[in-house]
Write a structure and sequence with these properties.
Blueprint (H helix, E strand, L loop, with lengths): L15 H7 L7 E5 L4 H9 L2 E6 L2 H12 L1 H4 L17 H9 L4 E5 L13 E3 L11 H14 L5 E4 L15 E3 L1 H11 L9 E5 L2
Parallel strand pairs: 1-2, 1-4, 2-3, 4-5
Antiparallel strand pairs: 5-7, 6-7
Helix pairs in contact: 1-7, 2-5
Length: 205
Amino acid sequence: MNPLRIPSYWETNESLDAIVNGMNVGKRDRILAVLGSGDQAFALLEKAAYVKAVDNCMAQVEHAQARIKYPETTLTKPHCSHFYGNRDYFSAERIAEIKKKASCLEIAEEDIFTEGNIEEFNKIYLSNASTNGSNPLDKVNGFLNRLAQNLGKPGIVYFTADPEFKPEIIIPKRFSLDKELTRIARKHERNGIMVWRPAIYRRKA
């Protein structure tokens, strides 16, 4: 009998509008994302061609896999409502589109910072995985350097917490802050619960 695994994150406390609009998600995008609760991946899937969402915690993987099977209830009835700032985001129309595209979502128990096929993606959603102190800096900076070399166009990277305030994270010179997308994301995030300070970087050609 498998032990009961309890996820740490039942729902996201980030603004889904901030993520989707800040990343300017379109129908041809192939996105690599931190999984967490799964909310972010589901919201991205509605607009994108393909989403690979990864987490090194199996409890989060199982939680998201269960949610995508029954989205009518798991996306509209939050488990911890005091953390849930997106209560009205997953409308019936959005859920129908997510269900239709479920085969375009890959959920895996993996470490995003060791992803070996960067060239398969053109946008990255990092949540706060690079800035929360839980990952070694050499691993984070190595991953960012690989993104600078291999990420496809337009080469968007979404940081939930601005790495500007963590100077030991070195943003490669091939990336520059996309001021307009960052402005859009922060505008939406101000309506959320945690009031994160996202930053969106774009890879130069």
